Amino acid sequence: MKKTAKITFMIIIMIWIGTTVKAQGLSIDSPNYRTAIGLRGGELGGLTFKHFTSSDGALEAILGLGYNHPRVFAFTLLYEKHTPAFNVSGMRWYYGGGGHVTVIGERSGYYRNPWGFRRYYYESNAIGLGIDGILGLEYKIPPIPFAISFDLKPYVEVVSGGATFWSLDPALGIKLTF
Fold it and tell me: DSSP code of 75?
């Protein structure tokens, strides 16, 4: 229920931003865009913000929550290079790299009750630092201010407890462009 409410809230925000930008007279329907905000699915999916710093270079920030673990929060910053794909207007390959910081909080346990279950409690907090790569394909839909994407964001992460994690982190994304 909470996840559905969050997704609905994000969609409403994206539509509101789109109508506000269009009302200000910006060229939102152009095949290229300068800035985008949206959602990225995947292992550490969440809110994404992309801004082009040049005609083919962009910075992308991702505020993510763990898909399989609700107590994981991550901030990722990537630099991406964009090149045309398949001679299709609005379609681009992108690749690049960056890093992330992850905050991990874990709690579990059970308690003694009249039927004999004993109390067990475990709590662990950790911070992880990681190196990320990214390779993807994005299509800016010409008549509307949206872009869709598919990417692989492989990463290696070292956690404060000494553990090392890695993943390909495939994801689908949708962004409102302006």
Answer: E
Report, at the CATH architecture level, how domain 2-101+129-177 is classified. Beta Barrel (2.40)
Query: How is residue 134 written in tokens?
Result: 């990214």
Question: By the 8 A CB rule, do 151 and 158 touch?
Answer: no
Name, in order, each residue with C-beta under 8 angstroms of 149's C-beta and a sequence gap of 6 or more. 136, 137, 138, 139, 172, 173, 174, 175
- Per-residue pLDDT averaged across 98-113, rounded? 74
**Look-up: residue for tokens 């790299």?**
97
Residue ranges per structural domain of the chain:
2-101+129-177
C-alpha–C-alpha distance, residues 137 and 150, integer Å: 6
- Per DSSP, the residues of 10-73 read HHHHHHHHHHHHHHTT--TTSSS-SEEEEEE-STT-EEEEEEESSSSEEEEEEEEE-SS-TTEE
Q: What is the pLDDT of residues 6-42, one digit of tens each?
A: 666 656 665 555 555 444 443 333 347 999 999 999 8
Give me the percent of the chain exceeding a pLDDT of 70.
71
Does 70 score more than 90 pLDDT? no
